[in-house]
Amino acid sequence: MKNINFNIEQIYTGCLAQGAYYIISNGEAAIIDPLREIHPYLDRLERDEVKLKYIFETHFHADFVSGHLDLSKVTGAPIVYGPTAKPEFEAIIAEDNQIFEIGNIKIKALHTPGHTLESTTYLLIDENGKEHAIFSGDTLFIGDVGRPDLAQKAATMTQEQLAGTLFHSLRNKIMTLPNDVIVYPAHGAGSACGKNMSKETISTIGEQKEKNYALRANMTESEFVIEVLNGLTPPPAYFGMNVAMNKTGYNSFESVLNKGMKALTASEFETIAEEFDALILDTRNPAEFYLDYIPQSINIGIGGDFAPWVGALIGDVKQPILIVTDAGKEEETVTRLSRVGFDNILGHLQGGFATWKAAEKETDAIKRITAQQFAAEVNIDTDKVIDVRKEGEYSAEHLDEAYSKPLAYINNWINEIDPKEHFYIHCAGGYRSMIAASILQARGYRNFTEIEGGFNAIAKTDLPKSDFVCQSKVL
Questions:
Q1: What b/e sequence results for 37-74 when a residue is b if at least 16 CB atoms lie within 10 Å of its CB, and e otherwise?
Q2: What are the tens digits of pLDDT across the range 24-46?
Q3: By Cβ atoms counted within 10 A, which residue in 102, 127, 187, 202 is the most buried?
Q4: What are phi and psi of 133, to 5 degrees?
Q5: Strand-pair partners of 20
Q6: Exposed, middle or buried by CB within 10 Å (0-12, 13-18, 19+), for 353?
Q7: Any idea what the Cα angle at residue 168 is, between residues 164 and 174, rounded to 5°?
Q8: Where in the chain is the domain with CATH 3.40.250.10?
Q9: The domain 368-473 belongs to what CATH superfamily?
Q10: What is the mean pLDDT of the chain?
Q11: What is residue 64's three-state secondary structure?
Q12: From the CB of residue 1, how many other CB atoms can be counted at a distance below 10 Å?
């Protein structure tokens, strides 16, 4: 958003559905909720010949590791948190309504607890005193609001109490702003920090009053609490660990990158995997992975929602990891792992999987068939079919008699599987089902068949399906 006296750039990262913000005015800059790798911000500062004055954090993020510490160390800019925040490093703890000046503009800290107790919305006021935009963090999304169940332990409050707090924050601090104030949230559709976020990443207060269910006029607090909490799924296991890293500190991104970029021969790779009980993470496309891979590898393709699935399924950010990537994808893989706190990367297989093959090491494969083959051989009445899509996708339409077993919960339902009973497994297009297949085989389950193309391809066959229901009605 360009203006004569200031400029706002939304830096959106699709994999995390996360928005950071870069603001400049009259030779000075501010950055809100930066990602962990800070070079893109440093490049912008150098390009624009401006000095970074403040690094604003809307809250202690759970779904990614922020770049606030590295950025502050390099630039000297102070980190700003909202009221009640207690980071274990030097920072400015703003008072409610405190003003920060950047060039010709002002940033006002509006304490908006509810998602977390320190959650703060930053209001940009232009040089004429006009309230121009808010950077709402996880307090207000486009079409949704932040989930209030993540801070229960730290806040010693129930999720219902936190939801009530959020209700008042929205109505007393945000909905009282002019309708033309622009809304810049920290996340969009795909983030686990909300349940009903829009694919749009910018809106206005007025539009949200009209379209956002949680900002409905005449809504009571009890109605708000019920609707906000309804349908929330358990948060991914890594969330608490990311909060701790953002609050207490972490290793520099450069040190993590240098460690992960260590190139290993096939023999070195094998030795380290055994010595450190390292998880082998293969980031190749599922269409390549299933044909041939290192035994016990887990496939999470770099081409999909890579980092969130790593966080959801591996969980422990301290888990030693070895990576197998396509040539040239090593740095991207390490970077995206570090964004969600997975810093214990012991290196990568130099030359990728081809190096392993050339060394004539043992390999494994997954049984995969096309949807047409599946349609020809399956008996819907007797064969077991497992659908690993989200509950909402399954509810919208699914194969008759298929079991709903979402990938996100595989660590819970895997032990319910009878290893002697053959089953078929699919997702929407093949990305998630290959993740599930690799986990199943790594844990000794081999009596199954994965379906290429997933439900998208199955739906084109004559196999019986449930009636379609719009997903917006079932999520």
A1: bbeebeebbeeeebebbbbbbbbbbbbbbbbbbbbbeb
A2: 999 999 999 999 999 999 999 99
A3: 187
A4: -155, 155
A5: 11
A6: buried
A7: 135
A8: 251-358, 368-473
A9: Rhodanese-like domain (3.40.250.10)
A10: 94
A11: coil
A12: 15
Burial class from Cβ neighbours inside 10 Å (0-12, 13-18, 19+) for residue 283 reads: buried
Domain range 7-240, CATH architecture = 4-Layer Sandwich (3.60)
pLDDT for residue 470: 55
CA–chain centroid gap for 446, Å, is: 30
* 3-state class (DSSP) for residue 206: helix
With residue 426 as reference, give the H or E element that holds it. strand 423-426
Alpha carbon 78 to chain centroid distance? Answer: 26
- Per the listing, tokens 């939801």 go with 163
251-358 carries CATH number 1.20.1250.20:
no
How do residues 136-178 score in pLDDT, each as one tens digit?
A: 999 999 999 999 988 766 667 899 999 999 999 999 999 999 9
Q: Are strands 448-451 and 423-426 parallel, antiparallel or unpaired?
A: parallel
Q: Kindly state the helix (H) or strand (E) to which residue 439 belongs, with its residue range.
A: helix 431-442
318-368: pLDDT as tens digits? 999 999 999 999 999 999 999 999 999 999 999 999 999 999 999 999 999
- What whole-number distance in Å separates Cα of residue 145 and Cα of residue 446? 42
Cα(150)–Cα(312) distance, integer angstroms? 15
pLDDT of the residue at 474 = 38
In angstroms, rounded to a whole number, what is the distance separating the alpha carbons of residues 208 and 205? 5
Residue 2: predicted pLDDT: 63
Delimit the CATH 3.60.15.10 region(s) of the chain: 7-240
pLDDT of residue 473 exceeding 70:
no
3-state helix, strand, coil in the chain (%, to 5): 35, 20, 45
